[in-house]
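Q: Entry one of two.
A:
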Amino acid sequence: MSDLADLTLAEASRGLRAREFTSVELLEAVHRRAAMTEANLHAYLTLDRDGAARAAVAADSAFKAGTDLGPLQGVPVALKDNMVTRGLETTCSSKILSGYEPPYDGTAVSRLRDGGAVIMGKTNLDEFAMGSSTENSAYGPTRNPWDPDRVPGGSSGGSAAAVAAGSAMVAYGSDTGGSIRQPAAMCGIVGLKPTYGLVSRYGLIAFASSLDQIGPLTRRVEDAVAALEVVGGHDPADSTSYPGPVPDYRSGLESGVSGLRVGVVTELNGEGIEPAVQEAVDRTIARLEAAGATIVPVSLPSLEYALSAYYLIAPAECSANLARFDGVRYGLRRLGENVEEMMSNTRAEGFGPEVTRRILLGTYALSAGYYDAFYGQAQRVRTLIIRDFQAAYEQADVLVSPTSPTTAFPVGERTADPLSMYLSDVCTIPSNMSGDPAISVPVGLDGAGLPIGFQVMAPALGEPVMVRVAAEVERLAGFDARARFASSEVQ
């Protein structure tokens, strides 16, 4: 590729170490790409030009001194704007946090800085990560680089659009019900949700604490693995952080799928999936079988209730978490005659309609007389889902499905119909409910030239076998979004 902005993470990392170019030159190329694309895409809320420039100079100095800080050293990285960054505005795309500059870095951000990453800025998202299209942002929607009249998916739509368009080489998002994988699928890139607890949530502004997980969005599977290694590992500041050693993800990337059992989830294929998406998924499964995998039909009966259970558990936890935004300590404040009126005025102006809808739903589900009937029952369904997954992984090493039932839909098409929007995550929500890892890999285009994502799921801490299969899916598909977005073609 003639433009440095079109490099993958692995290519950029090799080039920096071979002194083919500097981190400063790499950053300049990515900034040029952002200047070309941002007017149409709006992937970023904040571009930290000064901070990124300092980080690039520091990375180059470390290279000259012979210091190797890891695979992200000197590489431009974008962060979803619900990851707190010291001294850099962090809004969650909400008016209620307008102007908020955190006094600390989250753990994932600290690990990125320690690893020499060049943080470009903060990307747009659905407000407080609540949405599937990045249209719920208080600062305007992000658009899909493949077709600006289409959504990029959500809630990490800004991160996905930035990587797809080349205005970041790696981006990080959060995944509560598919918010990394679904936008990755719609933007033709790779999105990885790790096992719950594998990446610290300290410094991730919470939506639903038992579901949220930070993960990377990249152009290639090997890049996602490298990006995960940098931020993964135990953190005493997060009580839900996995205390064991981080698995070895890299060793199996070239091993192929011969001898592996690939389970095709009956409930996530067929009915409700767009024909072009299903055809691409079926074609990919056939290729895996030809490559030596054993294909096993698998049923997860409780998935019928997963979407309903999720939309009780997530809003309930959201209701509890967002109670802290009261106009007293940080962010927006609108005065009233007393404290109660001040809080009411602040929240009425600060929260958008989707956040308000979920707070009301969650508060109702947790209220006296309804807790057991709604939230308690949803948690029991969650237990059934976990058991179904455990049984399925006795039959198969990984499970596969479409990532999204559709390709990217037009901007504005579903904003007036919350249920149709919620159905965008029907294939991704189950892995959040079980806490297991999952990854989306692009495998082709539909008739309108829009990307299609293929999801690979694995048991808890099963990232090594998951990325092994994902890497083979990637090789078999031969899909490379850069052919569409090379250099000046992104406008």
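Q: Entry two of two.
A:
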Amino acid sequence: MQATVKWLDGAAFVGESGSGHSVVMDGPENHGGRNVGIRPMEMILIGLGGCASFDVMSILKKARQQVVDCKVDLEAERADATPAVFTKINLKFLVSGRGLKEAQVKRAVSLSAEKYCSASMMMEAAGVEITHSYEVVEAI
């Protein structure tokens, strides 16, 4: 896996993935930014959510669950000192579908958390307390 990050100006950078996708990152105005892009720590949090969601959806698809929508809300706490690393993160999945089996959703979230999500495991190894929850909603 490869990536490149190039400084634009102020506190703005453009990151390009090895697969050719780009994202603009910027800092807050009080740190020289212009608020034209996502903050780097927000990207890490979103990356965690994407990694876990990818796992959950893959597991539910293999279980032949009829998922209509899957959303994960992430809430994170950071240390007050520098470096302001994440200390706690909660992922709450909201999965809707037709005839979803709650046991399958619970299993998918657990497997992601305990076995498959590389981002989650990497953060936990660094001391971040990560919790998971889920809610199943019948689609109309």
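A: Comment on entry two: Residues 40-138 form a domain with the GMP Synthetase; Chain A, domain 3 fold (CATH 3.30.300.20). The chain has three helices and six strands.
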